[in-house]
Amino acid sequence: MIDPRFVYLAAALSFVGAAGYIRDTLRGVTAPNRVTWGLWGLEGVLAFFNEVQQHVGTAAFMTLVFGLVPLAVVASSFRNSHSVWKIGPFDVVCGILSLLGIVVWAFVHEATLALVSFVIADQLASLPTLRKSWLQPSSESAWVFALGVVNAGITLMTLRHFTTAGALFPGAILVTDFIITALVAGRIGPRLRGVDEVRLNASLG
């Protein structure tokens, strides 16, 4: 375990990553999927209150950051109409299922089970961006997700007791952000599919 105050370093890194992502969004370099980022924001804020009720401690602050940063990204996407990923049926279905997970959380009175349903909802919200990172990695920025891996790792290491309540949400974020980072930075999707991403961008644009 490391000093719980390291969570504030993680928060600072998160804001640095968010600033870069928002800058790229405003410039039209990055096109965030509003379904993913909007639900990430909602779920992060609600998970924060859940963790506070379970007395997770300082680590809950990082969960709040995990909610506020996506909301800032969504807000920035409205400033540039060219910085928005087109929402399709897959995104809508994932969004609805994710919202259903939140509804389950609202009606489940057992704290750990509620958190599990929350994490499932969060992972469903991630699927549109995971798919986008596979199909068109140039529409994403790996930097913010790489920092997300670092942030989640720091949060996990600040836990005094490694419990489901404290570890599940940041642990899930760590895994998801790692996969997205690999997909975007490595351009894995186009490489494995043998697709010229320059032509792909032109066809999708």
Mind explaining what this structure looks like?
This protein is an all-alpha fold. The protein has one domain (6-204). 77% of the residues lie in helices and 0% in strands. The radius of gyration is 17 Å and the shape is globular.
User: What is the quaternary state of this protein?
Assistant: single chain
**What class do helices, strands and sheet pairing give?**
mainly alpha
Sheet with the most strands, sense and barrel status: none
Helicity level: over 70%
Strands, count? 0
Distance between the termini: 47 Å
* Average of the residue pLDDT scores: 84
Catalogue the unreliable spans. Answer: none
- The run of helices and strands is HHHHHHHHH
Amount of beta strand: under 5%
**What is the gyration radius calculated from CA atoms?**
17 Å
Question: Could you give the topology of this structure?
Answer:
Blueprint lengths: L5 H22 L6 H20 L5 H19 L11 H19 L3 H25 L6 H16 L6 H23 L1 H6 L3 H8 L1
Give structural attributes:
single chain; 205 residues; mainly alpha; 9 helices; 0% strand; globular
Summarize the structure.
By secondary structure, this protein is an all-alpha fold.
